[in-house]
Amino acid sequence: MAVDGVIAGSASDAAARPDQGTDTETETSTATQIVDAILSQLKLGNVAFNAPTTINIEDTVSIHVTLSPSETAAVLEARVEGPGEKVSLPLQVSNNMEARLSGEGFRIVPVTSERQAVSSGVTDWIWDVTPLNAGRHTLTLTIDALIDVNGETVPRTLRTFRKPIQVEVTTTQRVSGLLSEHGKWLWTTLLVPIFGWMARKRSARNKSAAPPANET
User: Fold this and answer.
1) Which contacts of 119-124 are long-range, i.e. CB under 8 A and separated by 24 or more positions?
2) What is the tens place of the pLDDT at every residue in 17-56?
3) 81-100 per-position pLDDT tens digit
4) In a domain, 177, yes or no
5) Which string of b and e fits 27-61 if b means at least 16 CB within 10 Å?
6) DSSP assignment letter at 57
7) Which domain, by its residues, includes 71?
8) Are 181 and 155 part of one and the same domain?
9) pTM of the predicted structure, to 2 decimals
10) Are 91 and 46 in contact (CB under 8 A)?
11) What is the pLDDT of residue 186?
């Protein structure tokens, strides 16, 4: 009987586990359905931004993003200020959104708040971007919808854009940078000896050109 009781107990536990798993799966399914329902209610709008391909290392450029649930892509492109190609495409729009710009090799300073309430008109994001190193680097623009899930505001990434950018350095800037970085070494190692040699040569030339002294 004891063995039967253990077996019966195990069978009962085993029967209970599928029910628990089903409850968990149901809760997970319900949670994802809530997110799906929220996303399905987002209105389709447009977003536009500038995408430069090259930046000089001494320049600071603006990256400008414009978004609207009502304006056309052409209208948004016309509002974008900044160098480079103007890119526009459809994008879902929520009443609260966040845009972030990131990239190694750049100093990125947000001019506007990255998290903003979105109106029926146009919402703008602007960053000032300054290259730190020469070469090829990538800027990444991420746009999130901030949605309310079970009373908590959470981000949902809608689109991510990656743009390779070539940071250029002119010959004059390279020479200037070399002098700035190694100026003391150049002065003490090369220029001072050269100036000393030129001074000695000039002094010897002056002596050889001087008239002989009168004998008494």
Assistant:
1) 120/68, 120/69, 120/70, 121/68, 121/70, 121/71, 122/66, 122/67, 122/68, 122/71, 122/76, 122/79, 123/66, 123/67, 123/68, 123/97, 124/64, 124/65, 124/66, 124/67, 124/79
2) 445 556 566 656 677 888 888 889 999 999 999 999 999 9
3) 999 999 999 999 999 999 99
4) yes
5) eeeeeeeeeeeeeeebeebbbbbbbbeebebeeeb
6) T
7) 40-168
8) no
9) 0.68
10) yes
11) 53
Query: Token pair of 214, please?
Result: 């009168």
Cα angle 27, 33, 37 (rounded to 5 degrees) comes to 150
Please indicate, yes or no, whether residues 124 and 57 belong to a single structural domain of this protein: yes
Q: Is residue 11 part of a domain?
A: no
Q: What does DSSP assign to residue 134?
A: S
Report CA 137 to chain centroid distance, whole Å. Answer: 10
Least confident of 59-68, 125-134, 153-162, 181-190: 181-190
Q: Rounded to 10 degrees, what is the CA torsion of 100, 101, 107, 111? A: -60
Q: What is the pLDDT of residues 141-193, one digit of tens each?
A: 999 999 988 888 999 999 999 999 999 987 665 555 545 555 565 556 655 56
Instruction: Note whether 190 and 111 are same-domain residues.
Output: no
What would the mean pLDDT of 103-123 be, rounded to a whole number?
Answer: 96
Kindly tell me if the per-residue pLDDT of 130 is higher than 70: yes
Q: Are residues 113 and 67 in the same domain?
A: yes
Q: What is the enclosing helix (H) or strand (E) of 100?
A: strand 96-102
